[in-house]
User: Which sequence fits this backbone?
């Protein structure tokens, strides 16, 4: 019988830890939180000092029973959820449910899932830190109050199912305001002058005009550009200065949660939530030659601190692998400019310096390998020598004008031998002349005036949004990914070619909440709340005091918003010139979960509705309504195309829209129908469903297979290869071009 019980969050982490702790420990997993606020009610008694009402999470009864049974037989219970506020709260909830003597329970922290990391954590047990627990409780209660008291206002104003959030609403606001900047941006014309020059040795190069009469040259229009150009065509060109100097470029610090998500999004197009799932796998343990190994330290951190043991290990690796020249002369220590970092854990780094990425490529999935290599390279590069460049610039005068051309030549690659972050494109020295000296006269070959226009600020991507949230002090490392995922899932924001853009729903919701509660949904207020939560964790502020300070202005602002609800609701319902088909009353544009639609203004007496932008329809005399015999029209609904009676709403007869391809199933007289799933994905099934269960994701083609005679083929759409027609029976493939011919 094991004397000790060790409880972690994740089953995969539990499997890894079992290999390191020996038979004296029984290792179990809580599988995340076991208690939380109830789903269908506020769960916070505001009148009784914000007392939370915690309930057991659905489906966790069996796990709790197992944990309680194991706790009865254990001498010591070690609680080891993740080393952050959330993990501390999970440990607190587990301790409350185990119902054992407090002296039996110890909290331990594992910042890396390795043998040394586990032993170090077990050697430093402590009591549960109630300051961390209260900081997590305060955040949870704040978010619950905002979500459960503001969201119903949106339901009554727009439609049921919308949500508001203390942080997510501010994130939507940031994106909406960036979109407004882009929409309101007015391009400004400007011109630049370039001279194609030739030296006495016939070397050609191009220089840019920077100054006129020792002031920065600014050209606003083509007429001014022509005047300067005319003067320059008559001028003589002479080299007045050649300068060379060596520049150094230092490596970036190791990753924090924010910078890891930014770089992963930029390089691999991985969503932040996906990045964190992969990082969690690397942290909890990957099988390496049959033994689970935690490959990186804890991945939710805002610190760039490096442990002394890790510093020594990576510097030893660099000197052995690359030589002493590539090792930074002294250990590099980094500092962050942010003022409200927790610094509870060191930066994200590899745990084993004898396991470089190339050694694990076969043991890791493609995404795991890419992320592990990114983390490894960033950490190793932080302790490598600086890259060095020789910068050369040439100044040329032409009367009152100054031209310049410059470039950089690599001298020593340093840390860039291992990684190049790609943020700066080094200018190429190829275009610079070699046989040139000061006071040389140059020949003007061509003078060029380029018209340009200022550009609007770029839209935010998932990575740059996280960078902005991090810069503004909004959210914590553990919340960035969920913030981005939530606003996209709620359809407030959509991804368009990698950029985040507000939807119409997002713009309307943002306008309602920001205009209605400006004191609450703003960057400064949200940032101050994050500082208050940090102060609770540091035991500098009482968590109930923070809740009271928040709730007073929040309640006042919410009451004021509810007083204006009817006015706000009317403002988002646009009047139209359309008349109701049934009663003749004017139609209004309203909102639903499927978007905007037309509804009769006489509601609830008249409940007529129709699509906002009804597509043009063509009567099909060959299609007769099964109910009244009238011609039918083709329409598109939530689950795909269908035939509808042209006399709707008097007659509601419908027929399925088929592809005029017979169902391939034996003894079935149905035809194939194009349909859509609840999430909008197109598939093809039989019109006789549910009697016939035929279905396929691929587009059917009404042509039999030349090889086996199967009645249909399917079109397979491929990214890296040409599309093909595939037989679902014998799997034979045929070029798509044959079908097109």
Assistant:
């Amino acid at each position: 019988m094991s004397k000790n019980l060790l409880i972690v969050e994740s089953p995969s982490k539990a499997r890894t830890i079992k290999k390191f702790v020996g038979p004296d420990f029984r290792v179990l997993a809580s599988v995340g939180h076991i208690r939380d606020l109830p789903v269908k009610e506020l769960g916070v008694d505001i009148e009784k000092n914000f007392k939370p009402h915690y309930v057991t999470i659905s489906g966790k009864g069996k796990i709790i029973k197992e944990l309680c049974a194991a706790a009865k037989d254990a001498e010591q219970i070690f609680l080891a959820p993740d080393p952050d506020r959330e993990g501390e709260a999970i440990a607190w909830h587990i301790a409350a449910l185990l119902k054992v003597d407090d002296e039996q329970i110890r909290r331990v922290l594992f910042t890396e899932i390795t043998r040394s990391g586990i032993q170090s954590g077990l050697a430093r047990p402590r009591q549960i830190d109630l300051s961390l627990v209260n900081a997590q409780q305060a955040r949870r209660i704040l978010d619950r109050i905002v979500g459960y008291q503001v969201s119903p206002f949106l339901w009554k104003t727009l439609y049921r199912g919308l949500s508001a959030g203390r942080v997510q609403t501010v994130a939507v606001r940031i994106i909406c305001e960036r979109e407004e900047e882009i929409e309101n941006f007015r391009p400004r014309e400007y011109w630049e002058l370039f001279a194609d020059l030739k030296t006495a040795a016939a070397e050609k190069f191009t220089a840019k005009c920077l100054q006129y009469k020792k002031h920065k040259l600014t050209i606003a229009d083509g007429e001014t550009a022509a005047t300067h150009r005319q003067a320059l065509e008559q001028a003589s060109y002479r080299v007045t200065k050649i300068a060379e100097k060596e520049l150094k470029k230092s490596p970036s610090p190791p990753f924090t949660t924010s910078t890891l998500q930014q770089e992963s999004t930029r390089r691999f197009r991985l969503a932040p939530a996906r990045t964190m799932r992969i990082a969690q796998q690397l942290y909890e343990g990957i099988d390496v030659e049959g033994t689970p190994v935690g490959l990186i330290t804890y991945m939710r951190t805002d610190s760039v601190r490096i442990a002394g043991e890790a510093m020594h290990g990576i510097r030893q690796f660099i000197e052995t692998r690359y030589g002493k020249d590539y090792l930074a002369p002294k250990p590099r220590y980094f500092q962050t400019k942010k003022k409200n970092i927790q610094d509870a854990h060191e930066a994200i780094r590899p745990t084993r310096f004898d396991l470089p990425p190339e050694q694990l490529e076969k043991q890791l999935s493609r995404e795991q390998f890419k992320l592990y290599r990114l983390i490894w390279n960033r950490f190793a590069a932080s302790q490598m020598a600086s890259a060095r460049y020789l910068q050369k610039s040439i100044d040329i005068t032409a009367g009152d004008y100054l031209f310049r051309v410059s470039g950089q030549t690599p001298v020593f690659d340093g840390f860039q031998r291992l990684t190049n972050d790609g943020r700066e494109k080094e200018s190429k020295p190829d275009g610079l002349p070699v046989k040139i000296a000061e006071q040389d006269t140059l020949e003007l070959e061509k003078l060029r005036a380029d018209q340009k226009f200022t550009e609007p600020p770029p839209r935010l991507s998932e990575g740059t949004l996280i960078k902005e949230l991090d810069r503004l002090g909004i959210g914590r490392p553990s919340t960035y990914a969920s913030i981005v995922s939530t606003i996209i899932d709620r359809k407030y924001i959509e991804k368009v070619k990698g950029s985040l853009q507000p939807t119409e729903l997002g713009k309307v919701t943002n306008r309602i909440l920001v205009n209605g509660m400006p004191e609450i949904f703003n960057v400064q207020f949200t940032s101050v709340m994050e500082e208050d939560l940090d102060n609770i964790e540091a035991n500098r502020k009482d968590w109930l005091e923070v809740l009271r300070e928040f709730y007073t202005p929040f309640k006042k602002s919410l009451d004021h918003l509810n007083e204006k609800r009817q006015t706000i609701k009317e403002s988002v319902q646009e009047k139209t010139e359309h008349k109701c088909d049934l009663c003749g009353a004017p139609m209004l544009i309203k909102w639903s979960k499927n978007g905007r639609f037309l509804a009769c203004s006489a509601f609830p007496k008249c409940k007529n509705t129709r699509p906002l932008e009804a597509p043009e329809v063509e009567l099909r005399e060959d299609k007769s309504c099964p109910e009244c015999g009238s011609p039918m029209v083709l329409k598109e609904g939530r689950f795909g195309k269908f035939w509808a009676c042209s006399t709707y709403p008097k007659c509601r007869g419908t027929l399925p829209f088929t592809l005029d391809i017979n169902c391939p199933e034996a003894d079935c007289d149905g035809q194939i129908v194009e349909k859509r799933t609840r999430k909008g994905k197109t598939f093809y099934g039989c019109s006789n469903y549910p009697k016939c269960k035929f279905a396929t994701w691929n587009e059917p083609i009404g042509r039999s297979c030349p090889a086996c005679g199967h009645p249909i083929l399917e079109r397979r759409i491929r990214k890296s290869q040409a599309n093909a027609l595939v037989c679902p029976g014998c799997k034979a493939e045929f070029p798509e071009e044959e079908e097109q011919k």
